[in-house]
Amino acid sequence: MLKVLIVDDEPWVLEGLRTMINWEKYGFEVCAEAHNGSEALRLIQEYKPELVLTDINMPVINGLELIAKLNEVMTKPPKFVVLTGYDDFKYARTALQQRVNDYLLKPIDDEEIESLLSRITPMIQNEIASNEELDKKQFFVVNNIVNRLIQGEYNENLELLTQSTLKLQANAEIMCILIEPAMSINPLHSRIVDYFPKECTRFFQDRSGRTGIILESASIGNESLDAIVNQIRSDIAEHLHEPVLLAISTRMVGICSIREIYMQALDVWKRKTHQQKRGIFYYSELRVLKKKEHHKDHFKQLLDKVLANDLEQIQPCVKEAFASFVENLLTIEIVQAQVAHLELTICTLIAQMNGTPDTMMIKIQQEYGNLGELNDYFALSRYVQSLCMLATVYLSELEQQNEQNTIYKVIQCVDREFRNKLKLQDLARQFHINSTYLGQLFRKQTGQGFSEYLNAKRIEEAKSLLKRTQLKISDIAVQVGFSNTDYFIDKFKLIVGVVPSVYKNENKN
């Protein structure tokens, strides 16, 4: 239902407008009435009606002054219809030049106002639908860019795209606000744009569905910020009928700091959510944990024991690490993150040695559950100990297999030395094996012949250089191991489907 607000200093006019018109028939409800311009100015900013009917001739603030002020202070002012007597008709014509949509002469005729509403209702509805569609498209683009930045992607092209699309200067002062519970962007946007200048706010939702704002904060002082976020929290809490958490980062400078301020706000969000707290919390107010590197060192020491096949020392290392976590009051979320990093490191090592980390992880998860489901230190410590014990045994087995697997070493050599001049015969002599037999083993292991594999490695490296450097194509050819530029171009087109110059331009676009 659309909202209409009526302004007139004569009570009988207000009464007549409220009762003589079937507002509901035209999709409206009367949200408020005002007896003068000053009262109307306050009520219109509070209720945000889509339509305002206002008398022109009023004391203190007349109708035209009211419209001018609202057009100045509101991001999306309502449609205006002015009410005027015949003597003041010249003012109505002036009003039409001040973003006024129509006028009605007093005494007001039922048919005239119903005809006006028949015209103006679809106009408002179409404009709302158009704005919502535009907002969706803009949000999709902005959200995509912000999520790329908070995930750690950053390069010159992305910075330029951020500046042009988000209208955010490279050296802008910014901060991040995360809001819990999450809510859809349109209602949130409508509640926040009147607190912060529209050009200062960029709304997004991270990949976990959390609602956030990247706020350009240079023009907002700390006291003003405190007052505004308190108003926002109260407004959203009233709308959702439940308590609200606002997690706020520090102020930082530059587009490159978007990931850092997001991680700060996320740290606050995780801690306060875990503690089941609601309210406004700043990253700067969190207790800074000491010996942060010391915590990491425990898992580094643990990883060293895994690589050294030292099964006896794994349990003591796990106990020592978790004793330190408890002593320093680390939250479960922080410990989970460090365990996840250890887990990823181990899985990467297994994959590099031609193992299958998924097999090991499935076995662990069947016994202990997923890492994200382990919500206490004891369960996490058992998970880590089992992970490290299984990994130690598995890595030892893989190492023995790989020591006997010459082809594995040959492939490692090619992966490492592909930029240099490599020949199958030279590798056969280096590894003391018949060149024909080595070629057969190579194809069996990789699914490709030696030259085919070598060229594919070189072309992959060339693609990377074409993306991130301004080197000439001839220089790139030499860098990746091709002595002849024409031969390089032919191979590149054969593998990629286009010549290097086209690939480079496509990537640039």
UniProtKB/TrEMBL annotation:
The subcellular location is:
Cytoplasm
Kindly give the PROSITE patterns that the UniProt entry links to this protein. HTH_ARAC_FAMILY_2, RESPONSE_REGULATORY
Alphabetical keyword list = Cytoplasm, DNA-binding, Phosphoprotein, Transcription, Transcription regulation, Two-component regulatory system
The GO annotation for biological process reads:
phosphorelay signal transduction system
Q: Which Gene Ontology terms of cellular component type are present?
A: cytoplasm
Sites of the modification 4-aspartylphosphate? D55
User: Where do the HTH araC/xylS-type domain residues begin and end?
Assistant: 408-506
* One Pfam assignment: HTH_18
Q: Which molecular-function annotations from GO does this UniProt entry contain? A: DNA-binding transcription factor activity; sequence-specific DNA binding
**Does the keyword section mention Ubl conjugation?**
no
Q: Which residues form the Response regulatory domain?
A: 3-121
Q: Has the keyword DNA-binding been applied to this entry?
A: yes
UniProt superkingdom: Bacteria
Q: What is this protein called?
A: DNA-binding response regulator
Q: Which organism is it from?
A: Paenibacillus odorifer
Give the taxonomic lineage as stored in the record.
Bacteria, Bacillati, Bacillota, Bacilli, Bacillales
